[in-house]
Design brief:
The complex is a heterodimer.
Chain A: H1 6-23, H2 25-28, E1 30-38, H3 48-59, E2 66-69, E3 74-77, H4 81-95, E4 99-107, H5 111-115, E5 122-123, H6 125-128, E6 130-137, H7 139-160, E7 167-171, E8 174-178, H8 182-195, E9 199-204, E10 207-212, H9 214-239, E11 245-249, E12 253-259, H10 264-272, E13 276-282, H11 289-296, E14 304-308, E15 314-324, E16 328-335, E17 342-348, H12 350-362, E18 368-374, E19 377-382, E20 394-397, H13 403-415, E21 422-430, H14 432-486, E22 489-490, H15 492-521, H16 526-558, H17 562-593
Parallel strand pairs in A: 5-22
Antiparallel strand pairs in A: 1-3, 1-4, 2-3, 6-12, 6-21, 7-8, 8-10, 9-10, 11-12, 13-15, 13-18, 14-15, 16-17, 17-20, 18-19
Helix pairs in contact in A: 1-14, 7-9, 9-13, 14-15, 14-17, 15-16, 15-17, 16-17
Chain B: H1 16-36, E1 40-41, H2 43-46, E2 48-54, H3 61-70, E3 77-81, E4 83-91, H4 99-113, E5 118-125, H5 127-155, H6 158-182, E6 185-186, H7 188-218, H8 224-256, H9 258-289, H10 294-297, H11 300-309
Parallel strand pairs in B: 1-6
Antiparallel strand pairs in B: 2-4, 2-5, 3-4
Classes of the chains: A alpha+beta, B alpha+beta.
C-alpha cells in the first residue's frame, strides 16, 4: 500500500528536474557588466559597434570576460565592479552622446539556460545596491495649471464672440468671469458651456464661476501621472541606468527604482526637476520706465507679467505663451561663436519650427523672452531682439551662467517636462558593499540553520530524519526555482523568509514522523504505520499551513517594499513545503520501504 | 532517539489556573511597559531619515557628531551600529527641508570631515508615508487575526477560534512588551516577523485542536478535560521538536544575519518561545472555559451516525 503509481514518481522526478534546471542560474551567478544602447529609438544598432567597443576597451587594457550583442544593445561582462566602472567611463568618452552606457548585471550561466528563460533570482535593491524613491505627484498643481489654461481660453473665445466682460481670474481651481451686463453673461454662458463641456458653470452676482467637473479632474490627474512617468523614463534613460523600474502606485504616486546607481544626489536632482521652456513676447508698448517702475511695485499691466532678467534688468513679458518645451526634439549644450559663452542649442519639431517662424516673422525688431519654468517659478534667461524671421527650427539660447548649467538644462529639455511637480516622500538607498554583505548574511543564516536542522533531524529520527532533510533540501531547491522563474524581487527580508520558511516547513515532517512513531507504538505493522502516519498527519498539515498562509497573504496585501518581499517568499515557501514534505518525502519513503515484503524495524529512532 | 516517552497523560488542564495566572501577569507587564515606555518606533513608522555610514578605521563618533551638527541638525542621534566601524545617524523630520536633501547634506558634511567615509544605506520616510505604513501594519494585524479566526471557526468551532486568537494575540502583546522594555527598534521587518509568528503559532493550536477533535471521536467516554489532556500530551513531542527546529534556524539568523535581521530574529525568538506555551497552555484552558464539548465539534451528520450505530 505504500507504493505510488508510476505517474506519481514521474511527476515528482519531472518537478525535481525542472527545479534543478531553473535554480541552476543562481549557481553561475551574475557578473558586473556594461550595457550600451542607442540613445534614440530611431538609431539602428550597428554591428560595427561591437568592434568599436572592444577596440576602445582593449586600448585601455581592460580585461573583457565576454562581449555580445542582442536586440537591445551591446553587453560587455567584466570580472569585477572596479573594471566595470572604469570601462563605463572609457566608453562614455569614446562613444559620445549617441549611446547610453549603463551599468548592469549579467548572468554568467551558459546560453542554453538563458534560452529556456532560466535566469537567476531578481535581486532587490537591498541586495544589489541602488536607490528606491517614492514620488508624490502634486495633483493640485496639475489642476491649477489646467485652470490657468482655461483662463486664457476664455479670454480668447469671449473676445472672438465679441462679448464684453470685466475680468477673468482664477481662484484655486475655479475660474471667475465677471460681467457688467446680464445679457452678455447669458450669451457667454451658452458659448462656454458649448465650447468647454468639461466645466460646470454657476452664476453668482453677475459673474460666472467655472469649475472642472469630476470626470475632467480625474482625466487631468491621470494624464499628469502618465506624462510624469513618461518624463521620468526619458530622464532616467539619460542617466544611464539598466533595468530601471518606474511604476504607478495608487492614484498619485510613482515608484522609481534604480539598481546600481551610486550618485544619488544627481539622480534626485534630475528626477525632481520640473524645468520647461516657454517662449513669450516682451510687451514693448508698455516697456517705458514709468510702467516698469510701477510694475516692479506690483501694478503689472493687464495681460503681462513682470520679471527681473539675469542681468537685473526689469522686463515686462506678455502672459500669452507662443511656444513651449513640448515642441523640442533635441537640445544640447554649445558655445556662442562670437562671445564664447555657454548656450543651449535647441531643435524644434516641424510644428514648433512653423510656429517659431511665424512668431519671429510678425515680430521683427521686438524682443522675445525665453523663460525657464522650474518648480512653478519662471525665470527670464534671455530676451534677445528678433533681427529677422527664423526658419528651420534651430534656436540658440544664450544667457547661460556656465557650461554645467547649459548641460543640465539641455538634459531637462530633451527629457521633457513634468506635467506636475513631484516630491520624494520616501527614499531607500543601499550602497553596493552593503548589498553584497546582505547576500552573504542571508546565505550564511540559511545554510547554517539548515545544517543544524539536518544534524538534529538525522540524530532524532535516523532514516526518516534523513528523508525529511532531503525533502527539506528539495523544498529549498523548488523555492529557489520558483523565485527564479517568476523573477520575483528577492530582498533581504525575502532571504530571511527562505530561512524561516525552511525552519517552519520541517513541522510537516515532524508531524508525520511523530505520527508514524505513535502508530508503531500502538502495535501497528511498519507498512500500516507509514500509511496511517502520512494519512492522518495530512489534515493537520493542511490546517496549519492555511493559517500561516493567511498571515502571508495579509502581509503581501498590506506590506510595502521589504515586507512584501518577505511575504512573497513566505507564501511561495508554504506551497513548496506542502509539496515537498508530503508528496516528495512520501515518494522517497515509498521507494525505500514500499517494495519490501517484510520490515523488522523502521529506522525512525 | 526519543525524548518524550510519556506513558501517562499529563493533567495540563488542572494547572489551568496557574498557567492562566502566569499569562495574565506577563501580559499585564507587557501592557504596562507598552503604556509607560512605548515602542521605539523606527523611521519606517515615525518618518525621518537614517543614514548609515562605514569607515575603514574605527569611527570617531565625536567628529561625526560635529559634522552632523555643522549643518544645524542638533536633534540628530549618532551611534555605533553593529561594529565600531559603522555609524548610524538618525535625523528627525524637519519642516521645510525635504528629507531627500537632508541625507545629501549629511553625506557631504561627513565627506568633508573624512573622505574615507562610505555610504552604506540611506532611508528616508516622509511623515505621511510613515503614518500610512503604521496604519497598514495595524490593518494587516487585524486582517490576519480576522482571517485566522474565520478559518478556525469554519474548520472547528467558534470557541476554538476565540481561544486560539486570544492565546496568540497575547503572544503578540508580549513580543511588543519586550520591544518596549528593552527599547529595541520596532520597524517594518519586525512587524513582518510578528505577523509570521502569529500565523505560525496558530499552527500549534491547530495541531492540538485537531487532536482534540480526533480524541472526541475515539475516546467516547472520556471527559472533556481528559480528552484535552491526552491531546496535549500526545502532541507535545511534536510541538517541542518543531519549535526547536524553527528556533535553530532563527538562531542562525540571529548569529549570521547581521544588524538588519537582528531585531527580526529577536521578535521571532520571543514569539516562538511564548508560542509553545501559549498556544497550548493558554488556548486550551480558554477553550475549556468557553465550554467546548463533544457536541460542538462533531457535526450533525456524524452525530446521527453514532446514534445509528447503537444497538
Amino acid at each position: 500500500m505504500n507504493r505510488y503509481p508510476l505517474w506519481k514518481y514521474i511527476l515528482v522526478l519531472t518537478v525535481l528536474l525542472l527545479g534543478l534546471v531553473y535554480s541552476m542560474p543562481n549557481i553561475f551567478g551574475e557578473s558586473p557588466a556594461v550595457q550600451i544602447t542607442t540613445a534614440k529609438a530611431t538609431t539602428k544598432l550597428d554591428p560595427a559597434l561591437l568592434g568599436k567597443v572592444e577596440g576602445a576597451l582593449n586600448q585601455e587594457n581592460i580585461k573583457i570576460d565576454a562581449i555580445f550583442m542582442d536586440s537591445t544593445g551591446v553587453k560587455v561582462r567584466f570580472a569585477d565592479a572596479d573594471t566595470q566602472i572604469k570601462a563605463k567611463d572609457i566608453l562614455k568618452n569614446n562613444l559620445g552622446k549617441d549611446y547610453v552606457i549603463a551599468l548592469n548585471l549579467i548572468s554568467r550561466s551558459p546560453s542554453w539556460l538563458s534560452n529556456i528563460h532560466a535566469r537567476p533570482m531578481y535581486l532587490g535593491l537591498d541586495l544589489r545596491g541602488g536607490v528606491h524613491f517614492l514620488l508624490q505627484v502634486d495633483m493640485k498643481a496639475a489642476l491649477d495649471k489646467a485652470a490657468d489654461r482655461y483662463v486664457g481660453d476664455f479670454r480668447a473665445s469671449l473676445r472672438k464672440e465679441r462679448i464684453s466682460y470685466s475680468g477673468v481670474a482664477r481662484d484655486d481651481q475655479s475660474i471667475q468671469i465677471k460681467f457688467t451686463d446680464a445679457k452678455e453673461l447669458a450669451k457667454a454662458q451658452k458659448i462656454i458651456s458649448n465650447e468647454f463641456p468639461d466645466l460646470t458653470l454657476k452664476e453668482i452676482n453677475n459673474s460666472l464661476i467655472a469649475t472642472l467637473n469630476l470626470q475632467a479632474q480625474k482625466r487631468i490627474q491621470e494624464f499628469a501621472l502618465k506624462q510624469n512617468i513618461q518624463t521620468l523614463h526619458n530622464r532616467i534613460n539619460e542617466l544611464g541606468v539598466a533595468e530601471p523600474i518606474i511604476q504607478q502606485q495608487g492614484l498619485d504616486r510613482v515608484v522609481v527604482q534604480l539598481p546600481g546607481v551610486q550618485d544619488t544626489a544627481k539622480a534626485k536632482e534630475i528626477l525632481g526637476r520640473t524645468a520647461t521652456l516657454e517662449i513669450r513676447l516682451v510687451d514693448e508698448e508698455k516697456s517705458d520706465p514709468t510702467t516698469l517702475d510701477q510694475a516692479s511695485k506690483g501694478q503689472t499691466p493687464f495681460g503681462d507679467e513682470f520679471f527681473m532678467d539675469r542681468n537685473g534688468q526689469p522686463i515686462l513679458v506678455k502672459k500669452k505663451v507662443e511656444l513651449t518645451g513640448e515642441y523640442i526634439t533635441d537640445a544640447g549644450p554649445g558655445a556662442d561663436q562670437q562671445s564664447g559663452r555657454s548656450t543651449v542649442n535647441v531643435t524644434l519639431d516641424g510644428r514648433g519650427a512653423r510656429i517659431f517662424r511665424q512668431v519671429t516673422k510678425e515680430n521683427v525688431g521686438k524682443r522675445m523672452a525665453i523663460l525657464l519654468i522650474e518648480k512653478g517659478q519662471a525665470e527670464v534667461i534671455t530676451a534677445p531682439v528678433i533681427n529677422e524671421e527664423i526658419g528651420g527650427g534651430r534656436v540658440q539660447i544664450s544667457g547661460m551662467n556656465n557650461a554645467q548649467e547649459a548641460t543640465d538644462i539641455s538634459l531637462l529639455l530633451r527629457a521633457g517636462a513634468l506635467a506636475a511637480p513631484m516630491d520624494i516622500i520616501e527614499e531607500r538607498t543601499v550602497g553596493p558593499s552593503m548589498g553584497e554583505e546582505n547576500i552573504k548574511r542571508g546565505m550564511h543564516s540559511t545554510l547554517w540553520g539548515f545544517a543544524a536542522i539536518a544534524v538534529f533531524m538525522i540524530i532524532y529520527y535516523v532514516m526518516f530524519g534523513g528523508i525529511s532533510v532531503v525533502a527539506l533540501g528539495i523544498n529549498l531547491l523548488l523555492l529557489l526555482a520558483i523565485l527564479s522563474m517568476l523573477q520575483a524581487t528577492l530582498t533581504l527580508p525575502g532571504l530571511a523568509a527562505i530561512a524561516l520558511t525552511l525552519g517552519m516547513a520541517i513541522d510537516a515532517n515532524v508531524l508525520i514522523n511523530e505520527r508514524i512513531r505513535e502508530e508503531l507504538r500502538s502495535g501497528n505493522s511498519a507498512q500500516a504505520s507509514i500509511h496511517a502516519g502520512y494519512d492522518r498527519a495530512f489534515d493537520t498539515i493542511l490546517d496549519s499551513n492555511v493559517t500561516t498562509m493567511i498571515a502571508g497573504l495579509a502581509l503581501f496585501m498590506f506590506g510595502s517594499g521589504p515586507v512584501k518581499g518577505f511575504a512573497v517568499v513566505h507564501v511561495l515557501g508554504i506551497l513548496t513545503s506542502m509539496f515537498s514534505a508530503v508528496v516528495v518525502s512520501r515518494a522517497i519513503v515509498n521507494l525505500v520501504y514500499g517494495y519490501r515484503r517484510k520490515i523488522n524495524k523502521l529506522a525512525i529512532g | 532517539m526519543e525524548i518524550f516517552k510519556i506513558k501517562k497523560d499529563i493533567p495540563f488542564m488542572s494547572y489551568g489556573r496557574l498557567t492562566t495566572a502566569i499569562s495574565l501577569i506577563t501580559f499585564l507587564f507587557a501592557v504596562f511597559f507598552l503604556a509607560t515606555k512605548g515602542l521605539n518606533l523606527g523611521v519606517d513608522f515615525t518618518g525621518g531619515t537614517v543614514v548609515e555610514v562605514s569607515y575603514p578605521q574605527s569611527a570617531d563618533l565625536v567628529k561625526v557628531r560635529r559634522a552632523v551638527d555643522s549643518i544645524g541638525l542638533n536633534e540628530a542621534t549618532v551611534q555605533n551600529f553593529g561594529s565600531s566601524h559603522d555609524v548610524m545617524i538618525r535625523l528627525p523630520l524637519k519642516k521645510g527641508v525635504t528629507s531627500a536633501q537632508l541625507s545629501e547634506q549629511v553625506l557631504s558634511a561627513l565627506k568633508k570631515e573624512d573622505s574615507a567615509v562610505e555610504m552604506r544605506r540611506v532611508e528616508t520616510v516622509g511623515a505621511q508615508v510613515g503614518q500610512e505604513l503604521y496604519e497598514n501594519g495595524a490593518l494587516a494585524l487585524l486582517l490576519v487575526s480576522i482571517g485566522i479566526m474565520a478559518y478556525l471557526a469554519l474548520r472547528f468551532e467558534w470557541r476554538f477560534a476565540v481561544a486560539a486568537i486570544i492565546a496568540n494575540m497575547h503572544d503578540v502583546i508580549i513580543i511588543l512588551g519586550f520591544f518596549a522594555f528593552f527599547q529595541w527598534e520596532f520597524n517594518l521587518t519586525v512587524l513582518a516577523a510578528i505577523l509570521a509568528v502569529l500565523g505560525y503559532s496558530v499552527n500549534e493550536s491547530v495541531v492540538v485542536f485537531d487532536r482534540v477533535r480526533e480524541n472526541f471521536r475515539k475516546m467516547r467516554k472520556a471527559t472533556v478535560v481528559t480528552v484535552i489532556d491526552n491531546a496535549i500530551t500526545r502532541t507535545m513531542s511534536r510541538t517541542v521538536i518543531t519549535h526547536f527546529c524553527t528556533q535553530l534556524m532563527v538562531l542562525s539568523m540571529l548569529l549570521f544575519g547581521g544588524e538588519t535581521l537582528h531585531n527580526f530574529s529577536l521578535a521571532l525568538t520571543i514569539g516562538i518561545l511564548f508560542g509553545i506555551y501559549s498556544s497550548v497552555l493558554v488556548a486550551c484552558p480558554i477553550a475549556l472555559y468557553l465550554g467546548v464539548s463533544r457536541e460542538n465539534l462533531i457535526t450533525g451528520a456524524e452525530k446521527k451516525e453514532t446514534v445509528d450505530e447503537m444497538p
